[in-house]
Automatic annotation (TrEMBL):
Cofactor(s) needed by this chain: Mg(2+)
Family the entry assigns: Belongs to the thiamine-phosphate synthase family.
Pathway entry: Cofactor biosynthesis; thiamine diphosphate biosynthesis; thiamine phosphate from 4-amino-2-methyl-5-diphosphomethylpyrimidine and 4-methyl-5-(2-phosphoethyl)-thiazole: step 1/1
InterPro entries: Aldolase_TIM, ThiamineP_synth_sf, ThiamineP_synth_TenI, TMP_synthase
Chain coiled-coil ranges: none
Any one Gene Ontology molecular-function term assigned to this protein's record: thiamine-phosphate diphosphorylase activity
UniProt protein name: Thiamine-phosphate synthase
Gene transcribed to yield this protein: thiE
Length: 239
């Protein structure tokens, strides 16, 4: 099998605190960029612009506004699903799900230098990703971990144990998503996942910057405890 090497090999990809935007929760189109910048100021390390109800023009407008807001931060902005809009928006890449454009076609559209994330809910999804041509995928989004309300058609929650199994099978960096908030994020470092993706925990917060800072602090505290108490979790080997 191939497909285990990322196009970002040798470059940094920080998934620690991954913000997925929700336009309505942010307070409308004109607030998305503000929330994204506040989250980054609080410690968010990557931002995905997501609005499944928006047309192409609106997605372009939202994404460009977020990119402008994050100028100078070094934090990448990716687009959910709309791979064909990445270049026009000036985004760093895209994130796709199991029912979206195929990863091979997405990589073809993105070219070799942009990010591509892929959502996986089951071991079979991870195995299928491992069979992709080399350099197709850069990271995996795993989940949902817990019940959540932002994606009505989401799969059955895997729980931390299920996420740990997916992490162990993945040779790529991984980020967990689904029902993650400040009270739960500390359970995730022990699974071996590289970061946590959040939506409502930041987008619906009265103070997105403070919310992001709290999430990051609790992640780091738990990660430090886990590192001190346990050896590194084996990961899927590169073949």
């Amino acid at each position: 099998m191939t497909g285990q090497r990322s196009v970002l090999e040798g470059r940094d990809l920080d998934l620690t605190l991954y913000l997925v935007t929700d336009t309505a929760m942010c307070g409308g189109d004109d607030q998305v960029a503000r929330v994204a910048r506040a989250a980054v100021d609080g410690g968010a390390t990557l931002v995905q612009v997501r609005d499944p109800r928006a047309d192409d023009e609106r997605i372009l407008r939202l994404t460009r506004s977020v990119i402008r807001a994050l100028e100078g931060t070094g934090v990448p902005v990716v687009v959910n699903d709309r791979v064909d809009l990445v270049e026009a928006a000036g985004a760093a890449g895209a994130h796709i799900g199991q029912s979206d454009l195929s990863p091979e076609r997405a990589r073809e559209l993105l070219g070799p230098d942009r990010l591509l994330g892929l959502s996986c809910q089951t071991p079979a999804h991870v195995e299928a990703a491992r069979a992709l041509p080399e350099g197709t995928v850069d990271y995996l989004g795993l989940g949902p971990v817990w019940e959540q309300a932002t994606k009505p058609d989401a799969a059955t929650p895997a729980g931390p144990e299920g996420i740990a199994a997916l992490v162990a099978a993945s040779p790529w960096p991984t980020v967990a998503i689904g029902g993650i908030d400040a009270s739960r994020i500390g359970l995730l470092p022990a699974t071996g996942v590289d970061g946590a993706a959040v939506v409502s925990a930041v987008c619906a917060a009265p103070d997105p910057r403070e919310a992001a800072a709290t999430l990051l602090a609790r992640w780091r505290e738990a990660a430090e405890r886990h590192t001190a108490q346990a050896p590194d979790r084996p990961r899927g080997e590169v073949r």
